[in-house]
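Title: Prediction job returns without error message
Component: structure pipeline
Severity: low
Priority: P3
Assignee: unassigned

Description:
Job completed but the reporter wants confirmation the result is attached to the right record. Sequence as submitted:
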Amino acid sequence: MESIAIHALVVPSGVQSEHPRVDPKCTDHTAPADIHWPGTNNEKTMAKRTEEEKMLAGEMYSALDPELVALRAYCTRLCRKFNAAEDETEQRRISKELFGAVGDEVFIMGPMRADYGKNVYIGNKTFANFNFTLLDTCRITIGSNVLFGPNVSLFTAMHPLDPAIRRNWGPEMGKPITIEDDVWVGGNVTILAGVTVGAGSTVGAGSVVTKNVEPYTVVAGNPAKLIKRLPRDSAASDRQAL
């Protein structure tokens, strides 16, 4: 069975999502009717909203909603095409269809994987190494001049802590992730839902980031903790790196 996951800097101007609104036929993917979902007291208001709208708002939603199932399948096909592409020109073309927005000179080394793709927004001159994983049930915003090492995972996905609610493919939720400009994320880093990584910061390899990272700091560890603060002067930073 397909794995089910849960999902802001300036978006490059003139770039819009090319994802279609899918009208899926897989009507057998329905949420269990007997589950009580917290946070849905205003039933009349919630009934007017789609599961995708609730998902992006960080509210409880059903990942088994037919339209969401179809959107994930569509994203899976695009990821496979991206990973199989033989040149950067083809990858660039696919990335414009895959992501909500993508800036200039963005390079992502395959293989990569996303849940929906269209909820990911990337600035200019950003690089991601192998095995980049984006669980974008909520929005993921990545700035410009950002570097990701291999095996980096951004998880906006969340599940209820109460196992009774999780049971029988129960509801899911998420929180957005923001990676600001000029950030370096080392290899094997996991960034969890709701985190903002501040501009100019560095996240050490192997870290699990559970809380916001201040701008111009170095953090590392599980959970990631402050190691040191960095000078904002470029020349001083260059001398420190030597």
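Comment from assignee: result matches the submitted record. DSSP finds six helices and 19 strands in the chain.
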